[in-house]
Write a structure and sequence with these properties.
Elements lengths: L1 H30 L6 H14 L3 E6 L5 E6 L10 E6 L3 H8 L2 E7 L6 E12 L2 H7 L4 H4 L3 H4 E15 L15 E3 L1
Antiparallel strand pairs: 1-2, 1-4, 3-6, 4-5, 5-6, 6-7
Amino acid sequence: MKLLHTQKNIKNLYILILFLAPGLFSFFAQSQTPLFPRDSILAAARDIMQSNQYCALVTVDSTGQSQVRTMNPFPLGDELVIWFATNRSSRKVSEIKNDPRVSVYYADHNHAIGYVNLIGKAEIIDDKKLLVKKKREYWEKYIPDWKEVFVLIKIVPESIDVIHYSKGITGEPGTNRSPQITF
């Protein structure tokens, strides 16, 4: 009789474990601390972004196909908002107006320090006063009517993935997923 009672308790224990297991796994997965502090990831991202003169801007065209082009961003401000100037009649302007979802990718493949992939929303800014403030010295020499030709692209980050080898910010063990910050 005692053996039967013990088997019943074990069976009830198994049922309880099966019932609680998904919640426990979820709790422990969520309660793990990130491998890298947020401010370290942001500092590493800023380092890579500021050390690269060029980056890749990825937009989505009207057929849903991604389009990539090399861009020369303005110097980074306090926030990780990215600014570009471009020809108002460029395909990227119409693509952004149609679908503001973009990615901006920074990497120096000659030195393999790491990379930054910023995902955000882009907006076309047609503001001549702001354009004049952001003016690059060479514009007048090559594009005399630059005030009429250019518009600005402003990209506000939604999330950012960062790898920076010299700062020790690498992929997660097992998945190799890069550390990510959501804004």
